[in-house]
Specification:
eight-stranded mixed β-sheet; two-stranded antiparallel sheet; about 300 residues; alpha/beta
Length: about 300
């Protein structure tokens, strides 16, 4: 029994020593200057989720105008591709939830989508829909870029497969056309789509980690061997508060990412106390449906 315990103790000591050695491995910045990260003690970016979808019909120009009026740093926008290859700002691949129409976006031309009210599915904080009897038009991504050339953007590609690749190509063309290369962050939950975008752009446009990339980084972080993650192709991680029972809102995760100059943004945060906690931890950005509340928190904290 004593021999077994010695062997177990030896293994534990070896693991601890190995982890200690791994921690001494130097890491280098993924990027020298990251526009989506903040310097120490600065406030996080106010990122309007879908253009503040608790306050306005999400992913519409009404929402983007409203968010800008509130005062946000960054618009979080979802994009899908129409039948005639126009990128519209919309969360789902169908129009059922937010409009008075139905069907796949890819089956409609942009002109055909104009007959629908994309404010039909909106409910305000009082439980009402002030846009039910009007037409909130579908929005082209290019129109947003043209109207707000100085904002930061988080543009998520929702399509996948061949359509996702086509959407990625058109998004890149728009980024070049509107000279937004230093103002845009491109995420996608689909690893294949985001890797296609990176290859297409030769990694010239900053991206956020996709699902499997995020999982890998978090697993390595929890094992205290994140120094061994060498193939990082992203400049930001956008995280929920938790996933599969694992708490992702920790100062340790943020600090580890910051060692590589990776920005950390959290979604979707609509509670003032949680906002405060994340700010004090050093989160670089807070993605929220309530940028008005986040503004209040920042004022309360003296920013």
């Amino acid at each position: 029994m004593k021999k077994v315990l010695k062997i177990i103790l030896g293994i534990i000591i070896s693991i601890v020593v190995l982890i200690g050695i791994i921690q001494l491995i130097p890491v280098k910045d993924v990027i020298s200057s990251n526009p989506f990260a903040i310097s120490e003690n600065n406030r996080p970016l106010i990122i309007a989720h879908g253009g503040a979808k608790d306050l306005f019909p999400e992913n519409t120009m009404v929402a983007f105008d409203g968010s800008v009026a509130i005062g946000v740093d960054m618009l979080e926008i979802d994009v899908c591709l129409t039948k005639d290859n126009i990128l519209i700002t919309h969360h789902d691949k169908t129009i059922d939830d937010m409009s008075d129409g139905s069907g796949e976006i890819r089956d409609y031309t942009f002109e055909e989508l104009q007959v629908f009210n994309f404010g039909d599915g909106f409910t305000d904080l009082d439980g009402n829909n002030p846009y039910a009897d009007t037409i909130v038009s579908v929005t082209k991504l290019s129109d947003v870029f043209e109207k707000y050339p100085d904002l930061l953007y988080n543009v998520e590609i929702k399509d996948s497969g061949e359509t996702g690749e086509k959407a990625a190509s058109i998004l890149y063309e728009l980024i070049i056309e509107y000279n937004l290369g230093n103002q845009i962050l491109v995420p996608s939950f689909n690893d294949d789509t985001i890797n296609y975008f990176r290859d297409l752009t030769n990694n010239s446009i900053l991206t956020s980690s996709a699902r499997e990339e995020t999982k890998k980084y978090i697993y390595y972080h929890l094992a205290q061997i994140d120094n061994l993650v060498f193939d990082i192709k992203y400049e930001a991680m956008q995280l929920p508060l938790s996933d599969s029972g694992v708490n992702l809102a920790t100062k340790a995760i943020i600090n580890d990412a910051h060692r590589r100059n990776i920005a950390v943004h959290y979604w979707t945060i609509d509670d003032k106390e949680i906002m405060k906690d994340l700010i004090l931890m050093g989160a670089d950005g807070i993605i929220t449906d309530r940028p008005d509340l986040l503004n209040e928190v920042l004022i309360e904290l003296g920013y």
